[in-house]
Amino acid sequence: MKTVVTEIEDLEKSVAKCEERLDVIERLQRLTMMTHEERSELKQEKKLLEQTLVDNRKKLKSLRWENGKSMIISVMILGVLYAGWMMYS
């Protein structure tokens, strides 16, 4: 079973890979002579990677929000338990 933290780590790795590949594609487009077909293939791959990157960043943002909410709830429960322990001891 995956935890929120492992999902966040996996998405961060995926985002990093997409960013690296986008850098490579941009360098290739600028520095190499290509045919029109090769250039259009790279444009399609770049477009797909950019969309994947946007989707992964949205998922990452929502997972981080969920992780933050869980942490806040845990701290609140711990505070209530501590306050109860202090009252009765």
Automatic annotation (TrEMBL):
Tagged with keyword Transit peptide: no
Cellular compartment(s): Membrane
Domain of life per record: Eukaryota
Membrane protein topology class: Single-pass membrane protein
One Pfam family per UniProt: CCDC-167
GO CC annotations, alphabetized: membrane
Transmembrane region(s): 70-88
InterPro entries: CC167
Alphabetically ordered keywords of this record: Coiled coil, Membrane, Transmembrane, Transmembrane helix
Signal peptide (UniProt feature, chain positions): none
Coiled coil: 1-59
UniProt-listed PANTHER family: COILED-COIL DOMAIN-CONTAINING PROTEIN 167
Name this polypeptide is given: Coiled-coil domain-containing protein 167
